[in-house]
Amino acid sequence: MTARGAELLRTELRRLRAEERPRIIRAIAEARGHGDLSENAEFHAAREQQGFIEGRIKEIEARLANAEIIDVGQLPLSNRVVFGATVELADVDGGKAVTYQIVGEDEADISAGRISIRSPIARALIGKSQGEVVDVSAPGKTRCYEIVSVRYV
Predict the structure, then answer these.
(1) What is the pTM of this model?
(2) Contact call for residues 140 and 131 (beta carbons, < 8 A)
(3) How is the chain split into domains, by residue range?
């Protein structure tokens, strides 16, 4: 994952630990004060939410522990598309130009121009160079793009 993606996960982890976990603990304590736990919907809802939060905390911790963090700014300059690169593409069939950064799954956000390394377009682009034409199998049809530029920002 990129350094930016790792920082986003660390921020979420801090928020879950510092804000969400204590809030749920208070909600469980308050629900316990309402009496019979077997018929206490607030208690069961809070416990279920606690399970989701604890699961997400463990998931983020595991992802960060096993991640290889790549600082895009430190990549050697070349015109080849690699993980972390920002790629400007021109639709060969006359469509509009698009720009994507190839990132890890946790960072992907198509509306912000960040696509997952596992997406069909990223898989088609990896290893290609500026000036090459790439066929991308997308849902509905195959699209043809020319790689206009490759940046490491």
Answers:
(1) 0.73
(2) no
(3) 3-66, 72-151
